[in-house]
Every structure is written in structure tokens, then in C-alpha cells.
Amino acid sequence: MVFGASLVLVAATAVALVMVVGGNLQRAAIDASVTSDQSLVGGLVGMEIQPTDLLTTGVPSGRVAQVEASLVALQQHATGVEHVKVFARDHTVLYSNRADLRGQNL
Known about the structure:
Blueprint: H1 2-45, H2 61-77, E1 85-87, E2 93-96
């Protein structure tokens, strides 16, 4: 009986340990992702995007090309980032490192 109780106690301790370590690993991964995203946003803001660049229509094609070229360069230098998109409030892609996504509502 003591042996069975000891096994239950060991199993419960092991489960608790796995949950704590798993939670810490998940938190560390999320924190690393947030830090990466913050630096990516900093790079994007560093491009000096103007309020007029965020209009859904009327942005000159030369400016669109300039912003998207900057996003391509930003994405190429960001390890593990597949896509960089700037959205309008209605979820329309205003700019992306992939030109085919521009204008799509995602």
C-alpha cells in the first residue's frame, strides 16, 4: 500500500514538473516571437511610412513599389519570417513582400 501511494506521488510530481517546464518553454517561445515581431515593426516604422501610405486607394504606384521593396528587404533580413503584410482596418492587404497579396482581404 505504501509502495502504491509512493508511485502515485511520484507520478503526480512528474506530471506537475512536465506542466511547469512545458509552460515555461511555451512562454519563452512566445516572448522570443514578440521580441522578433517588435524589432520587425521597428524596422517597418523606421521606413517612415506616412499616414497617406495607409489609404486604401490613391497611393501613387511609385510609392507602393517603394514600400513593397522595403518590405521585401525587411523580410529577407528577418530570420524565420515568411511574410510581411501591412493591413487596412478592413483587413485588406495594403502592402506585402508578396505583390500578389496586395488588395486581398485576408
